[in-house]
Amino acid sequence: MIAKTYSTMIRFYLLLITFSLCQLLPAQDHYPCGAVEMQKKLFNIDKKWQELQERSEQLLVKKKGGFVANRANELFTLPVVVHVIHNNGSENISDIQIDQALANLNAAFSHSGPYKSKGEGFNTEIQFCLARRTFDNKATTGVNRIVSGLTNLTMETEDQALKNLSRWDPSQYINIWVVNEISSQSQGSGVAGYAYLAGMHGKPLDGLVCEAKFFGKSPSDDVVLIHEMGHYLNLLHTFDGGCTNNFCDQEGDKVCDTPPDQALHSSCVFNSCGTDKNDSRAINPFTTDVNDMTQNYMDYSPFECQFAFTKGQAERMRLTIQNIRESLLQSQGCLSPCVSTISGDISAPQEAVTGQNVNLSFSGSGATTFVWSVDGTQISTSSAQDYVFTTPGTYTIALVAGNQDVNCVYKTKHTITVKCNLSADFNPTISEIKEGENITFTSTGTGGKDYIWKIDETQVGTGSSIDYTFPHPKDYLVQLQVSNEYCSQTKTGKVVVQSACGDSIWTKKYTSANNWNGSITSIGEDGSMVSTLSDNFKRMILYTNAKGEKIWSKTFEKSDYFRVEPVILKDGSILLSSTINEMNFNRLFITKLNKAGDVLWTKILLNDLNSNIFRLGSLKNGGFCIATVTQFYKFDKDGNIVWSYKLENRMFRAWTESINGNIMILLDKDTLTDVVVILDANGNEIIQNEILGKFNVNYLHNTGTKDGGFC
């Protein structure tokens, strides 16, 4: 962008839509950029534009390593459409003037003609043609002429309206709008042109706008068009970021062979920064301080100073064309209309495996010549062929088809994902054993030829199976790497080896003036524990974490309570139940606490229960059960009785819950016989069996069968 009025340099730190507002001055004046206000306006309208440019920059960084060897010497020719927006004045420039503008543009990008005579520059191997074919295969001159008052344009408010007058598919053509006058609300009149960076590729606003008075008039005047085309292909100003030059490929204009610059130049020799050699990496070509690159098309210096792009700028533009603006390479806009049309597509699978013969063929008509490539490397000129992928990855298959008509060129692509043709697995992958025990590991994968077994990163075998004795208590990492001539896969497993002596993880001892004794009553799913302790006078409920560290405790007078029994419920809350004898009548107290020991609610049952609590337990649904000597009760999570079951003079011994909510109760009938009762989730009796013999148990442990039964 180049301006007519003198002002302070505006540095660019935002990478999104860089508007280049080209404002022309006499040679002795500066050319400050007036794009910042326009950028801010667009950012405020929609942040997606900034995100688009940031993603394009990330893509360039990702692709930068491999593009030089891929298509490095190929000439890229891009189709251009010129929309002359005029009001029947001098801005309705002739086709000859448009042709001259394109000729000067091509001379600048090839560093030839009037620009080469000024000094050293770089041939970008990028050229431009006026479109010869419309998108629907009709002949065109590549020039559209539209009568409109928008030829005198206010860019902040009328940019979209201008481009809506005439636009060709911006993913297939470079649109250039030529107008009489560009004005800016923030910069005033005289703006000579502006363009968008590559993050806008294919969007309705994408393209360049230039004033007619600087379009095809002379090689110096066409610096405006050249400069804007540089922006279109993702070049930044040489003075972006000022003198900062610690990482030349990440700061400023992100091109290392343009020295740091912070000036708006009025002459062709100037040095505004002394930081040229700050980046000590090999990619920085400057080992001493040099003058500002006023000859660069992306600098702000008098037009007669400018005549060159650098190699680094050419690489950035070509990388942009190959990736962000890649659809322009598929465009046929530079060809005359095709008479013998070609239609069809690539016939190939979406997925394949290494070592597999993949058939590639053209399913269509009109083609007689074929050029196939995989990731840019030519593989065949047949209409169909088999291809073997030897490395896993995602590949782009490209076909360029033609016939006897040189203007009939058909380009299409197909993406295929190639996976490794083997799998790595072994049995067992998880095991728990005692120290000194042996395990046989056996490969169960497919497609492997070579095997490497490792235990804790140490190789222990190379066959399809191994035997290994684990000597010490610890967790071992078992790893199998399976490979063949194409690829390899790895599978890992774990063996937990416990001490044969049952070593303790931790031990805690609590001491106090009271002679407490008792046991752990319940363990929560997070490893927390609740214990019942007592001495001659009191009872205590102790709550600890998984490491046995005390969280809280609650003390009760023993004389008031026959029994205090806690349990940790499924949600981590704690349930306390106790009975108090008053006037030879037992009351049942049920209290629910949160993990911090705070009381959530308390229930008192007077008449339903008239005997001591024998067992309290948690249910899978968050509720709980209480068994007395003669009754069995099911409660919901809020302490309401759901149902009860009378034990009919048989004493309760133990209970457990099945997968589907059925409940088994073990009862003591007499000295020789136990009774098993199974109730459904609603308390209805399903079965009752007498078992001759006694189970010496206080708890039942159910493994849970899929049919809701018990083991």
Write a brief structural summary.
The protein is mostly beta strands and 711 residues long. It contains 8 helices and 41 strands.
How does this model look, in words?
Helix 2 (48-63) packs across helix 7 (311-323). The longest helix has 16 residues, at 48-63. 33% of the residues are buried. The model is unreliable at 1-36 (pLDDT under 50). With 711 residues, the chain is mainly beta. A hairpin with a 2-residue loop joins strand 21 (450-455) and strand 22.
Radius of gyration: 41 Å
Mean pLDDT: 84
Shape: elongated
Helix content: 10-25%
Strand content: 35-45%
Q: By helix and strand content, what is the structural category?
A: mainly beta
Q: Main β-sheet, in a few words?
A: 6 strands, mixed
Detail the poorly predicted runs.
1-36
**End-to-end Cα distance:** 83 Å
In total, the number of strands is: 41
Query: Tally the helices: what do you get?
Result: 8
List the defining traits of the structure above.
711 residues, mainly beta, 8 helices
Secondary structure layout plus pairing:
Blueprint: H1 36-45, H2 48-63, E1 76-86, H3 95-110, H4 113-116, E2 126-130, E3 143-147, E4 152-154, H5 155-165, E5 174-179, E6 181-184, E7 188-191, E8 193-195, E9 208-211, H6 223-232, H7 311-323, H8 327-330, E10 343-347, E11 351-353, E12 357-365, E13 369-374, E14 377-380, E15 384-388, E16 393-402, E17 409-419, E18 426-427, E19 430-434, E20 438-443, E21 450-455, E22 458-461, E23 465-469, E24 474-483, E25 488-498, E26 517-523, E27 529-534, E28 538-544, E29 550-557, E30 563-568, E31 574-582, E32 585-593, E33 599-605, E34 613-618, E35 624-628, E36 631-635, E37 641-646, E38 651-657, E39 663-668, E40 673-679, E41 685-692
Parallel strand pairs: 1-2, 1-3, 1-5, 4-6, 5-9, 11-17, 19-25
Antiparallel strand pairs: 6-7, 8-9, 10-12, 12-15, 13-14, 13-16, 16-17, 18-20, 20-23, 21-22, 21-24, 24-25, 26-27, 27-28, 28-29, 30-31, 31-32, 32-33, 34-35, 35-36, 36-37, 38-39, 39-40, 40-41
Helix pairs in contact: 2-7
